[in-house]
Design a protein that fits this description.
Length: about 325
């Protein structure tokens, strides 16, 4: 397929995503960045971590998006007393026939909302590791393959908040994007107040079938990416590990750089960003737009950076400014 042909198919398939956005906007005011990034996660079949203070419609946005797709959805509220079995399921002994029966947990749904994931300790958070990476769950020595699509959309409060447990690095790396959710503008906040006072409860329709999503995904994966763009993505990821190689003076700021999963995710997310913008090819701007969400949770800062009050976003900004754009 040539680029023109791909672009025509992209324009046709992206109507599916416009339907999802239209439904979400019935409930969620503003938060356009959040909606776009959630659609990118959906297109790439990637897990998402949404971080923001309480009350910014993170849970509402995820529940609403899940309602627009004709698939199964389960919300799991993470609390300090939650156990791994509460998520994965457990074996139950049946005395009548002296056998064990598997009782599947809430993880056996297509879209999982892991609400306030950092309110539960590490052993519970880690219960999601196998499901998120291998799309399967092992219970009582048996392995169960999870149905497609399988997406974990997790919300977390900023780490500084009371009663939170930081996510282990191995798990945080399995999230394709970490999306920061910000306060609404004054106009949006006024509209939110108006809607709440009016008691407006919108009916969300399941407008999209899983097969339509699969079709959009196939087209998204066929979007053209020049070798120069692939090299650019690899350079960005490698510069987080070996800044000196790229003439960057941020080495003392970084304890650990991004893993190769970052390059894979950045390539996919850049394609999805091009798809949302109705293009059949990836530009450096697509890469730059997605780099902060893909990298911010994969760079581990040193004590020096924390002492200087530097954030991962500050370092990503330096990387994108200094690394040569094709």
């Amino acid at each position: 397929m040539d680029i023109q042909e791909i672009t025509q198919k992209v324009e046709k398939e992206s109507l599916v995503l416009q339907q999802i956005i239209a439904e979400i906007e019935k409930v969620v005011v503003g938060q356009r960045n959040l909606m776009e990034k959630m659609l990118i996660g959906l297109l790439c079949d990637g897990h998402l971590l949404l971080e923001g203070l309480p009350g910014l419609a993170k849970t509402t946005a995820v529940k609403t998006m899940a309602s627009t797709i004709q698939t199964t959805f389960q919300r799991i509220q993470f609390t300090p007393d939650l156990l791994p079995a509460d998520i994965l399921g457990t074996q139950i002994y049946r005395p009548d026939n002296a056998s064990f029966e598997i009782k599947k947990g809430p993880i056996f749904h297509n879209i999982i909302l892991a609400d306030e994931i950092n309110r539960a300790p590490a052993k519970v958070q880690s219960a999601l590791l196998e499901a998120m990476q291998e799309r399967q769950v092992t219970l009582g020595g048996k392995t169960f393959v999870l149905e497609k699509p399988f997406l974990v959309l997790a919300t977390q409060n900023p780490i500084e908040q009371e009663g939170t447990y930081p996510l282990p690095e191995a798990q945080i790396d399995r999230f394709m994007l970490k999306i920061k959710v910000d306060y609404p503008t004054a106009t949006e906040e006024k509209e939110i107040m108006g809607r709440v006072y009016a008691g407006a409860a919108e009916n969300i329709n399941g407008v999209v079938e899983v097969s339509q999503l699969e079709s959009a995904r196939d087209i998204m994966r066929s979007i053209h990416m020049e070798e120069k763009i692939s090299d650019y993505i690899v350079n960005i990821s490698r510069a987080t590990r070996n800044p000196d190689e790229y003439g960057l003076d941020i080495s003392p700021m970084i304890s650990y750089g991004a893993s190769p999963r970052a390059s894979i995710s950045l390539g996919l997310a850049s394609r999805a960003h091009a798809f949302l913008n109705g293009r059949g090819y990836v530009t450096p701007l697509d890469v730059k737009s997605m780099a902060p969400d893909v990298l911010r949770h994969r760079i581990i800062l040193s004590y020096e950076a924390e002492a200087d009050e530097k954030t991962t976003d500050d370092l990503i900004e330096i990387l994108l400014e200094r690394i040569e754009v094709p």
